[in-house]
Known about the structure:
Helix content: 25-40%
Shape: globular
Oligomer: single chain
Largest sheet: 4 strands, antiparallel
Order of helices and strands: EHEEEEEEEEEHHHEHHHHH
Amino acid sequence: xxxxxAGCAGCCIDWRALAPGDSDHERRGPRExxxxxxxxxxxxxxxxxxxxESGLGDAMTPRLWxxxxxxxxxxxxxxxxxxxPAFFVGLRKPPKPVGPFERRPEWLPTCxxxxxxxxxxxxxxxxxxxxxxxEYPGHNLALEAETECERVETAFGGERLLEREVPxxxxxxxxxxxxxxxxxxxxxxxxxxxxxxxxxxxxRATDADRAEFVAWAMASAPGTTGHDRxxxxxxxxxxxxxxxxxxxxxxxxxxxxGSEADPAVARxxxxxxxxxxxxxxxx
Length: 283
């Protein structure tokens, strides 16, 4: 699709702190995420597998929802399928010094793969680039839903969505029952989540907490709530053993957050640890 992404990256940054009004489209309806992430991209089961097998299992985090009816864990009633907590898997968003929309750089929650200096994705067009990112905002247009491009236009002006026709060749939207085991996963052991849900809610999730959900997503059987236990055990062990530039840079960004907001620090914190460089907009 033809979109104007230069200097924007609105779909990769939690820019709510810069907006003149409220923008919280993910927290409408009967199910509210227990985390505070904005624009969490739901990864497919294949996306999850690609990240784990590429040694980037520590780049992902789960999302669960609070609702009126479901299964209770840590005092929270979680949305569930057949009594098992339902969840997405998305990409982590550590604080980074970014300056979208021609603003001065500020510390904002930003996708782990976004280069703060160019505001470009470090894995764009690579084999592990998520399906949802590759087709954005096509799915929104197909569903006649507002796009992030339009939200940025409303908040900051300019023209971002340059093409408004639904593109041909979109992958399946994975809505309803067909999403189960492919984009919406379930955790088969609610009792084992005691303490975990509270940490996810308060932003204190551990590597083990995240690995638990990533592994169950990878072990999910498409179209069902079933899992392959051996796949889960192997995936969990592999994720826990992962030490990638992503995980190391997240820890470094979190330590540095609140200091002078200098995007160029990404060369030290990310690229020196092995992060792919981005071409810049001249390319």
